[in-house]
Design a protein that fits this description.
Elements (H helix, E strand, L loop, with lengths): L4 H6 L10 H12 L3 H22 L4 H18 L7 H13 L5 H19 L3 H13 L9 H14 L3 H18 L2 H17 L3 H15 L6 H17 L3 H14 L3 H17 L3 H14 L3 H17 L3 H14 L5 H17 L3 H17 L3 H19 L15 H13 L3
Helix pairs in contact: 2-3, 3-4, 3-5, 4-5, 5-6, 6-7, 7-8, 8-9, 8-10, 9-10, 10-11, 10-12, 11-12, 12-13, 13-14, 14-15, 14-16, 15-16, 15-21, 16-17, 16-18, 18-19, 18-20, 19-20
Length: 429
C-alpha cells in the first residue's frame, strides 16, 4: 500500500536545519555577493512559503481566514515590487496567483505552480531550495492517490540522488514507481527505474546497473512518446560504461542521449558531459564544439556557466591564455546566479588555469578562498579536492607549471567527433 511516508522521508530536513532555511540562506548569499535583486526574489520565495504554511495550518475559522487574507495582501504587495520580466519573478507570481484561487481548487493550483518552480530550481542545480519547494508541494497533497504524486515523488528522487542522499532517493523512487504503476504511467515508471539503477551504480553494483539500464532502453525503444525517457536511460548507460572503464562506449551512449533529447536544459547538460568526456580522450576540437553548443543553447545561468567552465579548462590545457581569460570573464559575470558548487568549481578551474600558466601565488590564493567557501557550504568533496591540489602545488612550482596535454583523439572517436563538429557548424557555433 502506497502512503505519503516514503515521500516524507525523502524530503526530510537535517536535524540541525530550520524550516525554510534554504530560502533564507539564498537571501544572505545574494546580498553578500551584491546582487540585491536575487536577494529580494529569495525573500519573496520565503514569504510565499510562510503564506502556504499558514494556509495549510488554517482551521477554517473566521480569524484564521482573516489572517490568510492579510498575509495574501502583504506578500502580494512585496512581490509586486519585483521586475515582472524576470523569469524567477514570473514563477513566484504563478504561485501567488494559485494562492488567490478560491475554494477546493486552491491547493491543487498551488501544487502545480510549486512543481514548475521545483523543476526550474533542479535545472539550476539549486538542490536545497528545490527540496524545500517539493516539501511544500507534497504538503498540499490529500494523499498518495493525488494525480501528481508520482511526478513529485520522482522529482524528490532526482534531487536526492544529485545530493548523494541515496537512502532518501531510494524511498522516493520506490514510491514513484509504485504510484506510476497504479496510475498506468509507463514514462514515470521507467524514469523511477532509471533512478534506482543510478543508486545501484553509485553503490558499485555495476553489473546490475548495466543490465538494468539496457533493459529500460529496450522497453523505451520503438515508442516515440518515450524518447525523453530513452534519452535519460542513455545518459545513465554512459555513466555506467564510464565506471566500467569503457570511455568511448560511454561517449557513444551520451551522443545517443543527445539525439533523443529535446528539452533545452537537458540538451545543455548532455552536451557538457560530452565535452568533458571528449576532452578526457584528447578530442579537443570536438569537445570545444560541444561546450560552445551547450553555452549557446543554455536556458539558465547554471547551464551556461557549466559550459563556460568547460571552455576555460580546455583553453588553459591547450595554453590559450586569451581564450582562458575570455571564457573566465564571461563565467564570472553570471556566477552570482549559480549554485554554490558551481561557484566553487569556477574558483577551482580558475586556479588550475593560472597554475598552468605559471601563476602559482594567485592560484594558491584562489584555492584557499575556494576551500573556505566549500567548507562554509558543506561541500566536503570539493574541500578535500582543493586541499589535495594545494598539497601538489609545490611540485608544480618545481617544474615551472603543468605541461600542456597534446594527446590526440583515439581513432574510434573520429566519427563521433566529426558528427559533433558538424552539428556545431550547422548551428553557427
Amino acid at each position: 500500500m502506497i502512503t505519503l511516508r516514503p515521500l516524507d522521508r525523502a524530503l526530510s530536513l537535517r536535524a540541525d536545519e530550520s524550516h525554510h532555511a534554504a530560502f533564507l540562506d539564498r537571501v544572505r548569499t545574494e546580498r553578500s555577493s551584491g546582487d540585491d535583486l536575487r536577494g529580494r526574489i529569495a525573500l519573496g520565495e520565503y514569504l510565499l512559503a510562510r503564506l502556504i504554511d499558514r494556509m495549510l495550518a488554517s482551521d477554517g475559522s473566521d480569524e484564521a481566514e482573516d489572517g490568510i487574507r492579510w498575509h495574501l495582501e502583504t506578500t502580494g504587495d512585496y512581490l509586486a515590487t519585483l521586475p515582472e520580466e524576470d523569469p524567477e519573478t514570473a514563477q513566484l507570481a504563478a504561485v501567488m496567483r494559485a494562492a488567490r484561487v478560491e475554494g477546493l481548487r486552491r491547493l491543487d493550483a498551488i501544487r502545480a505552480a510549486l512543481a514548475a518552480r521545483a523543476r526550474f530550481l533542479m535545472q539550476e542545480q539549486r538542490d536545497a531550495e528545490a527540496i524545500e519547494v517539493l516539501r511544500l508541494a507534497a504538503s498540499t497533497m490529500p494523499g498518495p492517490a493525488a494525480a501528481d504524486f508520482p511526478a513529485i515523488a520522482l522529482a524528490a528522487g532526482e534531487v536526492n540522488l544529485h545530493l548523494d542522499r541515496l537512502e532518501q532517493a531510494a524511498y522516493a523512487y520506490l514510491a514513484a514507481e509504485e504510484a506510476a504503476f497504479n496510475a498506468g504511467d509507463p514514462a514515470v515508471m521507467l524514469r523511477a527505474r532509471i533512478g534506482e539503477i543510478g543508486i545501484a551504480r553509485r553503490r558499485g553494483d555495476l553489473v546490475r546497473a548495466r543490465a538494468g539500464i539496457e533493459q529500460v532502453i529496450t522497453e523505451a525503444s520503438g515508442h516515440p512518446d518515450l524518447d525523453p525517457v530513452a534519452a535519460e536511460a542513455y545518459v545513465e548507460l554512459g555513466a555506467t560504461l564510464a565506471s566500467l572503464g569503457r570511455p568511448v562506449d560511454a561517449l557513444r551512449a551520451l551522443f545517443e542521449a543527445f539525439c533523443r533529447t529535446a528539452e533545452p536544459a537537458n540538451r545543455t547538460a548532455v552536451l557538457c558531459l560530452l565535452g568533458d568526456g571528449l576532452a578526457e580522450q584528447g578530442a579537443y576540437a570536438a569537445a570545444a564544439s560541444a561546450f560552445v553548443l551547450a553555452e549557446r543553447s543554455a536556458s539558465g545561468p547554471t547551464g551556461r556557466a557549466r559550459a563556460l567552465l568547460g571552455l576555460m579548462d580546455l583553453a588553459s590545457n591547450l595554453g590559450d591564455r586569451i581564450g582562458f581569460e575570455r571564457h573566465r570573464s564571461a563565467a564570472a559575470a553570471i556566477l552570482p546566479r549559480t549554485a554554490p558548487h558551481v561557484q566553487v568549481d569556477f574558483a577551482h578551474r580558475s586556479a588550475v588555469g593560472l597554475a598552468r600558466f605559471g601563476q602559482f601565488t594567485r592560484a594558491a590564493a584562489i584555492w584557499q578562498r575556494a576551500a573556505g567557501a566549500a567548507a562554509a557550504r558543506g561541500l566536503a568533496d570539493w574541500e578535500r579536492s582543493i586541499e589535495r591540489m594545494l598539497s601538489l602545488l609545490p611540485a608544480c612550482r618545481s617544474v615551472g607549471g603543468a605541461a600542456h596535454d597534446t594527446a590526440m583523439s583515439q581513432p574510434e572517436l573520429a566519427v563521433l567527433s566529426a558528427d559533433i563538429r558538424q552539428l556545431a557548424a550547422l548551428a553557427g557555433a
